[in-house]
Amino acid sequence: MIRVLLADDEPLIRAGIAAILSSDPGITVVAQARDGSGAVALARRERPDVALLDIQMPGADGFTAVGAIRRACPSTAIAMLTTFGQDDYVARALDGGANGFLLKAAPPRELITGVRTVAEGGAFLSPKVTGRVVAGFRSRREFRAEAAEERLGALTPRERQVLALVGAGMSNAEVGRALHLAEDTVKTHVSAVLTRLGVRNRVQAALIAHDAGLTADG
């Protein structure tokens, strides 16, 4: 039996979702809270398999409750439940330790599937949310690639070669051997690369090389 804690500040919403989940013989709602603080207290007491949390609640919101429940009840899976599908909400929820993100307007079967999935140790995003996340990731990746390539425009051809090898994890000595340069010359090139890219260290430079798709073979 999957034991669920449900937190939402709207009584009718709580009642409706509880009824949907209880229609599955393998799920039982063991506690209900109307705010984040109450959800954390009930989680400590009930140790549910799944905590289903609304994001916007009075007092401690769902994001705050995620962290507190994660610390107090590490074995409890957490899914966020909201009417909103904004990308920043999804990112905050997942970064905070949530295992799933469900929309209140989702079909009943989807809510049940989401709860079952996170209870079994999986991750679940509402299909409507998944499409937005994937599109957003692609857009951000393309933006990073364009921005990185633009920054590489400040480098000379030799500096691009040096950066590509630095991005591959090579030391100055290894870069020197690969390009038939003295190590002191490589150090000068690396220093110039960092200055032109406006970064502090080799790791940051390597990330730019990665975003731009710059490889050792050009």
From TrEMBL:
The keyword Phosphoprotein is annotated on this UniProt entry: yes
Annotated InterPro entries: CheY-like_superfamily, NreC/VraR/RcsB-like_REC, Sig_transdc_resp-reg_C-effctor, Sig_transdc_resp-reg_receiver, Tscrpt_reg_LuxR_C, WalR-like
Domain of life: Bacteria
Start and end residues of each HTH luxR-type domain: 148-213
Residue list for modification 4-aspartylphosphate: D54
Keywords, alphabetical: DNA-binding, Phosphoprotein, Transcription, Transcription regulation
Listed name of the protein: Response regulator transcription factor
Pfam families per the UniProt record, alphabetical: GerE, Response_reg
